[in-house]
Structures are given as C-alpha cells and as structure tokens.
Design a protein that fits this description.
By secondary structure, the chain is an all-beta fold. It has no helices and eleven strands. 0% of the residues lie in helices and 53% in strands. The termini are far apart. A hairpin with a 2-residue loop joins β9 and β10.
Length: 120
C-alpha cells in the first residue's frame, strides 16, 4: 500500500553532485526504515544507504564520505545527497521500504527508479 515516487536523477560530470528524492504515501512513512539501492548495467542491485525511522544512517563502503541520506518526516520524503560522483556511481537508483503488517507478514515497496549517469 506504500507508494514511493523518486526524482532527481540525471546526467552529471565526474566530481559533480546530485540530490535524489523519494516521496512516500501516507503518514505511515515516519514509522518505516528506508533504504536506497542502486543497480548498474550487468551488476546486481546493491544497498547504498539506509536510514531508520529515528534518523540513524548507514552507508556502503563505496559511498561513505560522499553520500548522505536524510529524511523529512513532515513531507514523507527521504533524500540521497550525492557528492564527488564518479563513473562507478552510474546506475538506476531505487528507494525501498519494508512494511510490517503483523508479525510474520510483511511486504517490500520499491520506487520506480531514477537514472543517474556520471560521464564527461
């Protein structure tokens, strides 16, 4: 039932920055832990960053020090600020959350994905 709508992707030169947004439906958002994943051509989808309902963030080693995940619960939106981008960051980026209906029953929600291309 949770719907995620992403935006902010685009083409950027190496060393540049982008800010991705993911808007979630419903006030339930503030109770959900949220994740950012990415998938490059020919590669598996990988976890990039995660943020708990309380705002605690964690990152993949490949993006530590360059990316920052945050959330604005009043707007039901999470963000991924990406700095010092390089070609290896080129991928489709997805936001994700898991909704727990009750113990033993949960489902995953994914955004549609937004393309990030880092190229000269």
């Amino acid at each position: 039932q949770v719907q995620l709508v992403e935006s902010g992707g685009g083409l950027v030169q190496p060393g540049g920055s982008l800010r991705l947004s993911c808007a979630a439906s419903g006030s339930i958002f503030r109770f959900n832990d949220m994740d950012w994943y990415r998938q490059a051509p020919g590669k598996q989808r990988e976890l990039v960053a995660a943020i708990t309902s309380g705002g605690r963030a964690s990152y993949a080693d490949s993006v530590k020090g360059r990316f920052t995940v945050s959330r604005d619960n009043t707007q039901n939106t999470i963000y991924l600020q990406m700095n010092s981008l390089n070609a290896e960051d080129t991928a489709v980026y997805y936001c994700h959350t898991k909704t727990v209906v009750r113990p033993g029953l949960s489902f995953d929600s994914w955004g549609q994905g937004t393309q990030v291309a880092v190229s000269s």
